Amino acid sequence: MSQPKHVVVVSCMIRNTADEILLVKHHLRGWEIPQGRVEEREALIYALSREVLEEAGVTICNAKPAIIWSKVSDPAAVIFCFTAQHSSGEPTPSEETPEAEWCPADKVLERITHPVNRDRIKALLEHDGNLHLRSYATGPYRILS
After folding, report:
1. Separation between Cα atoms, residue 44 and residue 49, nearest integer Å
2. Whose CB has fewer CB within 10 Å in the chain, the N or C terminal residue?
3. What angle is formed at CA 22 by the lines to CA 76 and CA 15, rounded to 5 degrees?
4. pLDDT tens digits, the chain, 145 residues: what are they?
5. What φ, ψ does residue 67 adopt, rounded to 5°?
6. Residue 110 sits in a domain of what CATH number?
7. What gap in Å lies between CA 89 and CA 40, rounded to an integer?
């Protein structure tokens, strides 16, 4: 039997002291929270900090796992979604993310149009402090659990 292959992704909803949420604008998906692939043999928390710094120019603290999403359609992926607090730095665009900025929490869902990212941030905004497991498929996009 061959070993399953999954892409491992981390994403993070980051709040600042004004309770605003950090958003980055991806070239194709539009506004979203910082996210990216975990490199082979890289610790999740290190990957999370690296991706946030690379995509948005800020550092985080108090990162906590919130929701684990399983993408069951190809390419299969496991997405570890965290919540965290802003530690230092100002939102700074990158090659991957031409815009990065703080957004009032009550305006976030208006900005995010990509359906997968919209459901992901909605679940994080409603997060109750417990770790949740969810799954979805694409082609067409649908939440399975």
Report:
1. 9
2. N
3. 105
4. 566 688 999 999 999 999 999 999 999 999 999 999 999 999 999 999 999 999 999 999 999 999 999 999 999 999 999 999 999 999 999 999 999 999 999 999 999 999 999 999 999 999 999 999 999 999 999 999 7
5. -140, 135
6. 3.90.79.10
7. 27
- Answer yes or no: are the C-beta atoms of 135 and 144 closer than 8 Å: yes
Count how many domains the chain has: 1
What pairing do the DSSP bridges indicate for beta strands 59-71 and 132-137? parallel
**pTM assigned to the model:** 0.94
Q: Is residue 128 part of a domain?
A: yes
Site of tokens 């194709």:
28
Cβ neighbours around 135 below 10 Å, total: 14
Name the pairing type of β-strands 7-15 and 35-37.
antiparallel
| Residue 1 included in any domain | no
Type of residue numbered 6:
H
Please count the other Cβ atoms lying within 10 Å of the Cβ belonging to residue 18: 9
Can you say whether the dihedral through the CA atoms of 11, 40, 26, 24 is positive or negative?
Answer: positive
